[in-house]
Amino acid sequence: MQNPFRSERDAFRLVLLAIGYFALIGIGWKIDKWVGVGVFAVLTAAAVGWVLLRGRGEERPRQAPAPSPPNEHRILVVANETVGGAELLTELRERSGARRTVVFVVSPALNSPLRTWASDEDDARAAAGDRLAASLVAMRAAGLDATGEVGDGDPIQAIEDALRTFRPDEVVLSTHPPGRSNWLERGVVERTRERFALPVTHVVVDLEIEPTRE
Q1: Which of 45, 71, 88, 94 is most enclosed, with most CB atoms within 10 A?
Q2: Terminal alpha carbon distance of the chain
Q3: For residues 73 and 99, is the Cβ–Cβ distance under 8 A?
Q4: 20 by DSSP, 3-state: which?
Q5: What is d(CA 172, CA 189) in angstroms, rounded to the nearest whole number?
Q6: Contact 197, 72 (CB under 8 A)
Q7: Which helix (H) or strand (E) segment is 73 a member of?
Q8: Chain centre to alpha carbon of residue 131
Q9: 193, pLDDT greater than 90
Q10: Residue 72: its pLDDT value, please?
């Protein structure tokens, strides 16, 4: 049977949390039974949320997609605000060369944690869709065979979802420069390389110095 705890520290921490959990419920119940019920509901919801988030962050085996069709090079592009950057377009042109290349762009929907928790993602998906549409126009104008979709707000999950329908030969991740990139702060590039058995290229797009912005 697999040990559910990663270390003795994890087991000890769980014991302390359990003691605190029941102690707070007991205190609330002594004040008033409805206070106790309210404390129980809040703590239980918080515990369930923590378990779900912890499970998403656990290491998984590296995932490799099925081989792409012969005589075709496929690139999966993952970018949100930088999806229309000139640097990204230049990188895709260079990687395409003279061979037949198919590009699939995933633009994760940026959203605040509060709006995500409240399942209010309409605005985020609409904004991601607008950025995606503009970038696809630019890519097609440059001669690239490009399609795309708005993806999950978590870029790692967005890649995993895309692999179910698109079989890439490589992944190109586009971010803001260090210091202005939430993805870099969260280690998305490193996590992508660890999670997926595919070549991963990181492109930095500085929208502040580009001549035009959309």
Answers
A1: 88
A2: 55
A3: yes
A4: helix
A5: 10
A6: no
A7: strand 73-78
A8: 17
A9: yes
A10: 85
The pLDDT of residue 155: 92
Phi, psi of 147 (to 5 degrees): -135, 175
**Distance from chain centroid for Cα 178:** 18
Contact 111, 124 (CB under 8 A): yes
Element (H, E) at 203: strand 200-204
CA dist 166 to 40, 66, 74, 147, 157, Å? 45, 9, 8, 11, 14
pLDDT at 75 > cutoff 90? yes
Amino acid code (one letter) for 119:
S
Backbone angles phi, psi at 125, to 5 degrees: -70, -35
CATH 3.30.1300.10 fits 73-204, yes or no: no
Q: Where are the domains of the chain?
A: 8-57, 73-204
Rounded CA-CA distance 40/100 in Å is: 59
Distances (CA, A) of 189 to 32, 71, 92: 50, 28, 18
Structure tokens at 112: 């605040």
Q: Tell me how long the chain is.
A: 214
> CB-based burial of residue 31 (10 Å sphere; 0-12 exposed, 13-18 middle, 19+ buried)?
exposed
Q: 4, exposed or middle or buried, with CB in 10 Å at 0-12, 13-18, 19+?
A: exposed
The span from the CA of 173 to the CA of 182, in Å, is 13
If you average pLDDT over every residue of the chain, what do you get?
78
Residue with tokens 């210091």: 179
